[in-house]
């Protein structure tokens, strides 16, 4: 059983919606050149569409019956506020049954069965014990949209080493330069290309930047307002699968190390990824 948190360490800012980097197609995820927003709050999505372009439509998340709303904007760069502790990175392993482990490189949270149902427990890093890197880095960024009615933070998730290496460093630098408060920044999508094993992969990486110079930051500019720092805690270990939409291959070989259920696949003659669609050439 995980240690019980002290009362003063409980509490987190509610999530108003999600910032997504792709859309799900029949075969795989497809990356976008502009931001996509989803939320149960239709009015907030309409405000985003008015501010950043796009048409509002209804949307139902996978494996959910709750109706939400979405807009694929025409903007690849948006203005955001960064609250304290706005970003975290974890090593995670996902399967069709949900998140199987979440680790900081030292200890991992894993789902366990108890007499009262499913719970989580902390164990030593399993990748280190098994001498095999099974987990992937997951980066979660929480921002406030300054022009949109406030109902909490908007969360962006990225699965990939680029975001895991770059975004925490940038967010940490902004925090050091501005002390406690809401940092005003620009969230943008950057297209990148990687050639490996004879294959060309095109993907998008979320980036944080500012129009304010370091000298202006030290003078207090670029600071939206003062805000008490909330307690930082790991996200709840979800037991249902979710779609991660970042650094998605849009051209070249699309495939999986663990093929999804219900999809016809064949072994990849090039080795990686291990499985590719059966009709892939």
The number of helical elements comes to 4
How many domains, in number, for the residues?
Answer: 2
Note the gap between the termini: 49 Å
Which secondary-structure class do the elements indicate?
mainly beta
Number of strands: 15
Shape: globular
Radius of gyration, CA atoms, in whole angstroms: 20 Å
> How do the strands of the widest beta sheet line up side by side?
3-4-2-1-11-10-6-7-8-9
Helix content: 10-25%
Mean pLDDT: 77
Could you explain the architecture of this structure?
About 10% of the residues have low confidence. The strands form 3 sheets. The protein has a 10-stranded mixed sheet. Strands 5-12-13 form a 3-stranded antiparallel sheet, with helices on one face. It has a two-stranded antiparallel sheet with strand order 14-15. Strand 14 and strand 15 form a beta hairpin. By secondary structure, the protein is mainly beta. It is built from 4 helices and 15 strands.
Briefly summarize what is shown.
The protein contains four helices and 15 strands. It has 281 residues and is mainly beta.
Produce the secondary structure layout.
Elements: E1 15-24, E2 29-39, H1 42-52, E3 56-59, E4 68-72, E5 77-82, E6 87-95, E7 98-103, E8 107-114, E9 117-124, H2 126-130, E10 136-143, E11 153-159, H3 161-178, E12 183-196, E13 199-209, H4 214-218, E14 265-267, E15 275-277
Parallel strand pairs: 1-11
Antiparallel strand pairs: 1-2, 2-4, 3-4, 5-12, 6-7, 6-10, 7-8, 8-9, 10-11, 12-13, 14-15
């Amino acid at each position: 059983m995980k240690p019980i948190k002290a009362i003063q360490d409980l509490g987190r800012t509610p999530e108003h919606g999600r910032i997504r980097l792709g859309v799900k197609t029949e075969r795989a995820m497809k990356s976008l050149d502009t931001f996509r927003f989803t939320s149960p709050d239709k009015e907030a999505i309409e405000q985003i569409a008015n501010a950043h372009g796009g048409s509002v439509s209804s949307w139902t998340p996978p494996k959910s019956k709750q109706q939400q709303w979405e807009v694929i904007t025409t903007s690849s760069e948006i203005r955001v506020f960064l609250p304290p502790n706005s970003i975290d990175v974890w090593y995670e392993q996902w399967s069709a049954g949900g998140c199987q482990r979440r680790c900081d490189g030292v200890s991992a949270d894993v789902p366990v069965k108890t007499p009262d149902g499913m719970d989580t427990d902390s164990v030593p890093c399993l990748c280190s014990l098994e001498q095999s890197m099974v987990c992937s880095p997951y980066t979660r960024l929480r921002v406030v949209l300054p022009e949109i009615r406030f109902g909490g933070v908007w969360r962006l998730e990225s699965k990939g080493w680029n975001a895991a290496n770059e975004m925490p460093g940038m967010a940490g630098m902004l925090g050091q330069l501005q002390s406690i408060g809401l940092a005003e920044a620009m969230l943008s999508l950057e297209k990148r290309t990687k050639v490996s094993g004879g294959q060309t992969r095109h993907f998008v990486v979320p980036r944080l930047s500012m129009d304010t110079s370091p000298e202006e930051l030290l003078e207090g500019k670029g600071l939206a307002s003062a805000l008490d720092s909330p307690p930082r805690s790991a996200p709840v270990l979800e037991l249902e699968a979710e779609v991660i939409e970042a650094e998605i291959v849009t051209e070249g070989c699309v495939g999986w190390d663990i093929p999804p259920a219900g999809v016809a696949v064949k072994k990849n003659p090039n080795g990686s990824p291990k499985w590719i669609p059966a009709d892939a050439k």
